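Follow-up to my post from last week.
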Amino acid sequence: MKVAYWPGCVSRGFTPELHGSMAKVAPLLDIELVELDRACCSGAGVIAEHNQELADTLNARTFALAQQVDGAAMMMNICSTCQGAQSECQERLDANAEYRAHVNDTLAGEGLSYEKGLTNKNFLWLLVEEIGLERLRSLVRRPLTNLKVGPFYGCYIVRPRERLGIDSERPRDRYLEQVIDALGGSVIEYAGMRKCCGFPIVTMNKEASLKQAGRHLGDAQDADADCLVTPCPLCHLNLDLQQPTASKVVGRQLGMPVLHLPQLVGLALGLDHKELGLSRHVVRPTSVIDWSSSVVGAAA
Amino acid sequence: MAEAHDRPPEPFTLRLRRFDPDSGEAPYWDEHTVQLEPHRSVLEAVLQAKDRDDGSIGIRCSCRQAICGSCGVRVNGEPALACHTHLDAARAGARDGVIEIEPMGNMPVIKDLIVDMDAVHWKKIQRVTPWLLPKQPVPEREYIVSKESMVDVTQTMACIQCGACVSDCLAMEVDPGFIGPAALAKAYRFVGDPRDDEHFERLNDLAQDPQGLFDCTHCFKCVQACPKDVNPMGQIMRLRRVATADHHIVDRNNGERHEAAFATLVKDNGLLWEAEILPRSYGGNSWFGKFAPAAGKELLASLPTAIKGLLRGKMGPLSAIKPPHRLAREDLQAVQAIYDKVESRPQRYELNLYIAGEDEAPASPGDPVAVGLADEPGGKEAPPAGAEPTDTPRETREPREG
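User reply:
Got it. Predicted complex:
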């Protein structure tokens, strides 16, 4: 399956292991990634906060570039924040022909035009809806037996439900649990799994920001999780890179490895932890990997 | 729901969160089974349990038609108006077939499902000066304003003060002093009102408050919670736009600098230069921002995190000096041309789907659909006009009646 692939900025910046692991995992799932290397930042909601039309136009350009990818079934994201920010722009563009024409008028200088109705799915959604849990299960080479995994979704991929196409037919806010299960792991439910990591306010109110991250990590620890998995690189920054500081803010010891979704999938599909960039995390996933033998899962 | 209306009463089991702070006892769960038609509301079920099983169950209610905002609770963990939630839907959303009903969050419980709205919600509403501060002298007769200029604030006026957004606000959960979604949405009701004369003062006050305009963590909880499509977070973003772009307010919480730095870095590189965001948010929106005292202090505090990131190969040592990635020249120029064109408009062009409505059916059932349609039960009769005055030709259609 060929997809117009939007990695986002952070997966190529501060979390290079995300983009890297996606590239390794894609061929194992028969996903052909055509990278949208001409497209710009989605704005992560901040550009929309600055100027809504600007964010809509920049993303319409990305959508138009995706629609030009020959033979691509859809656009695919690996960043929850991009997914949410782009879905918001697309909602406006798709709902109103007059507005779309107005935005396309700005793109015309470059010979681009966005046509309503792009399908833009996060890797998580694509995994469940296009590849399917049964096929995923059949591809597992190293089941995550005994590995207790806590899902951490990130806000942008679970709210608002209507905009993101979440309903009883497509319970996209339950997909992480389904994927963990298909990979052979055990799902750990905890209070913060669909809450905010705090990243958007880390420069405005660092204490409130890291209190959020610290609480969720602590909740997961109390629920006895070995690690968390997230489809959002920005959540990863607050949960992993900032974890030592978050630990001080909440006044408790934290040691919770946080994996990117393609890393967790890659481990189960038999890839080596080094190929997946697991050594690049601030909190070493020692509870996930026995480093000497590369075996997944803590001893039972 | 026509079929549901025809169905006879059937048993529904409720699991109520009970708590009486005066009793000295801890909160507990209490189950009751009621007999009602499936289309009846969760409120009716609680009232039947109260009537037939236990008169001491506490719940606040009045209108029973989603107008008064009294019966805000959590149903199966999600905020809802008890009177606006059908029993069959509630049971379908329950984990084990039992409808779980709890008091709202972020507010102290007075008894059972009744929370202290005065202690939190109303105090926050008062914080934003929720009345008009008109130009003096006030006219002897009514104000004459254009219809279009008031359309913009109708979305915030749809608020019924139920507290559902306050209940679920994730910023308030860790920072109880945060002004919060309902009150900030109320603030926009006056900032967007052409008769009000203190827009700058209101915005400056909210922007400078460390628990004000820039304390919202962008989690969409309030957008999801609101039974009236007020979109509180959207109103907060509009307040930010008006504060920074129209009133040039630079706040002490780094809100304006963060936004400006983000937009500039994307304009300069096409992609985000993450290592520059932090110093510029603290020190000012230029490469030299990192040398400002405020940035220096923060950079020093962040040094252990940065060193760890460097050691683990998350960032290169040069990323502090030059961007790690940038679009090819031609694409960057195209992105910059978009910035130039959009930002040079005399007025920002904004599309609010709550106001404008949706002019087309969604492309396919799988595609995202618009929220806040005027003819939805929770929506108001919103005139299908553009949200804000624009420089682009855009027909203003006559408002639909009723």
